[in-house]
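Hi support team,

I submitted a single chain yesterday and got back a structure, but I'm not sure I'm reading the token output correctly. Could someone confirm the output below corresponds to the sequence I sent? I've pasted both exactly as they appear in my results page.

Thanks,
R.
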Amino acid sequence: MLAVIDTFGQELPAACQSTCEEAWVIFDSFLTKYGDNYDVCERVSRVLRLGLNFFGASSKLVLPSVLNRMAGAFVATGFASYLWIGGKIIGRFGNEPDPALRTAFDQLFESVSKKLVNMLGGTPPSQIPDGEFKFVAPYT
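Hi R., thanks for writing in. Yes, this is the structure output for that exact sequence:
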């Protein structure tokens, strides 16, 4: 449904202002419980990407929490979609001056970088299973 609607526009109606936060609580709990399942990761990542577009600037309040969850889930599983969502958030909101968001970006970078170094330490990228971070050409 989010793919069809795309975006609500510049600002959500007053009655819908807390919808993003309420939806994130559900997704956060769901990822806590099932985030180590690759199929769940893929589907939730798609919904989060579409949700970022739908909620737009209204999503900024939950982004530090989302980034924290994406970093933790990537560190725990190595699933590239968690890293991808972090990148989508940075791509869209990377110039925001919000200190909480900037701190979340820094924490994401630090934890993801450590995980990648561990994953690549002694293992060629082409030998990392598809369910984990996978380089694409020309690196393979």
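A quick pointer for reading it: Residues 132-140 have pLDDT under 50 and may be disordered. Let us know if anything else looks off.

Best,
Support desk
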